[in-house]
Design brief:
CATH topology of the largest domain: Aspartate Aminotransferase, domain 2
Strand content: 15-25%
CATH class of the largest domain: Alpha Beta
Structural class: alpha/beta
Number of strands: 17
CATH superfamily of the largest domain: Type I PLP-dependent aspartate aminotransferase-like (Major domain)
CATH architecture of the largest domain: 3-Layer(aba) Sandwich
Shape: globular
């Protein structure tokens, strides 16, 4: 498609967009009395309007039924989480039995490492990406310390080549091959939070397994954003947060994937709790743990239903739309934003360097832009003029044109505000 940097062209794209109506499903903050251009769905998604009804339903059941709400509410609390199995399995490419919801992201990664990071005296190393999200780095460090290893000996980072912003697939594969028999676990962010790079998860998973290691993925920036086929890719485990692209609310519950090949492995250790115990016998209060056969068997405590309600509202919206439709718009609107940036770049003295890969198969709903010649004042200008984005030192802004609620007109208007902020 040949793009144009005009308001008329942007409106034409919106008129052709069958997801455009979903903007009305969300509540937008306002700045100067106008709806914002929201680019931070990669950090916290907007609130769907339907969320309130889901939360109110739980509150009303609590008020009217009290403890009986566990069994007699319209959506009984004791199996509330089971409503996620089908829609979530479609979002991440899994069997319904392979997904569950519980806890929060880093908590779940720690719990999953109990099962899948089983170091020995010879096979103990973890491969991750350079500049992984800090929480992942802290998790790796504490896990290897817990097992008696030094982080500098056990954690192997895949680094970017000098002068490059992204990690090459061939370098990941070469490092896996190099570590070989010492490799216990590959655990990488499926989409790098800083650059927006999407990793080739299938190829990396195959390579990790060939080396004899387990392979997991942190899908914080991937779930609800990219096409995932976790079951078919034979991924051992994965976890993701729900409050970015899936709009469940700040700090809300995490999702987990455990491949079915592990479901009946009684030798696989886990930290157990009663909500992972045989559902039909849970209230018999038995002494010996009998795990549910499936990802639900990794649950520990009964679930925070008030937190799950907004997440359920969102995943049911995803189920209405389907990932294929989301991705089709994602690719088009991200390409249009890229075009707008380059067009504005021609009109101003500063220069923009998009450090996210230009290949659509290696990026998703995020462009990270290095603003040469500009500083924090430009970010402040954007925020004061209704463009909600985020800043990463030294001078990078991350822009996530989320297809559920961003419009092509938003992309055009952003370009005009950006130009005004630079020209002054």
């Amino acid at each position: 498609m040949t793009f144009e940097n005009t308001l008329e062209f942007a409106k034409q794209l919106d008129a052709q967009d069958h997801l455009n109506k979903y903007q009305n499903e969300f509540i937008f903050p306002k700045v100067n009395g106008k709806k914002v251009i929201y680019f931070t769905g990669n950090s916290l998604g907007l609130q769907p309007k339907r969320t309130k009804a889901y939360v109110d339903e739980v509150m009303n059941d609590w008020a009217n039924l009290a403890v009986e709400g566990h069994f007699y509410s319209e959506k009984p609390w004791w199996d509330y989480h089971e409503r996620f199995a089908n829609p979530l399995s479609k979002i991440v490419g899994a069997l319904p039995s392979e997904v569950t919801v519980m806890n929060t992201l880093t908590v779940n990664l720690h719990l999953l490492m109990v099962s899948f990071y089983r170091p020995t005296t010879t096979r103990y190393k973890i491969i991750c990406e350079e500049k992984a999200f800090p929480s992942d780095q802290y998790m790796f460090q504490s896990q290897v310390h817990f097992h008696g290893y030094k982080p500098e000996a056990a954690i192997v980072e895949i680094k970017r080549r000098d002068g490059e912003h992204n990690i090459r697939l061939e370098d990941v594969l070469a490092k896996i091959d190099e570590i070989g028999d010492e490799l216990a676990l590959v655990l990488i962010g499926g989409v790098n939070y800083y650059t927006g790079q999407v990793f080739d998860m299938k190829t990396i998973t195959d390579a990790g397994h060939k080396a004899g290691a387990k392979v997991g993925w942190d899908l914080a920036h991937a779930a609800g954003n990219i096409k995932l086929e976790l079951h078919d890719w034979n991924v051992d485990f994965a976890a993701w947060c729900s409050y970015k692209y899936m709009n469940s609310g700040p700090g809300n519950a995490s999702g987990c994937f455990i491949h079915e090949k592990h479901h009946n492995n009684s030798d696989l250790p886990r930290f157990a709790g009663w909500w992972g115990h045989n559902k039909e016998r849970r209230f018999k209060m038995e002494q010996t743990f009998d795990p549910i056969r499936g990802a639900d068997g990794w649950q520990i405590s009964n679930l925070p239903v008030l937190s799950l309600a907004p997440y359920l509202a969102s995943v049911e919206m995803f189920d209405e739309i389907g990932m294929d439709s989301l991705i089709q718009k994602r690719d088009l609107i991200t390409s249009y934003l890229e075009f707008i940036l380059y067009e504005i770049d021609k009109e101003v003295d500063s220069s923009f360097e998009i450090i996210t890969p230009s290949n659509p198969s290696e990026r998703a709903s995020q462009l990270s832009v290095l603003l040469h010649g500009e500083g924090r004042s430009l970010f402040d200008y954007l925020m004061k003029n209704g463009v909600i984005t985020d800043w990463r030192e030294p001078n990078v802004i991350r822009l996530a044109p989320v297809p559920l609620y961003c419009s092509f007109e938003d992309m055009y208007n952003f370009g005009q505000i950006l130009k005004a902020g630079i020209v002054g």
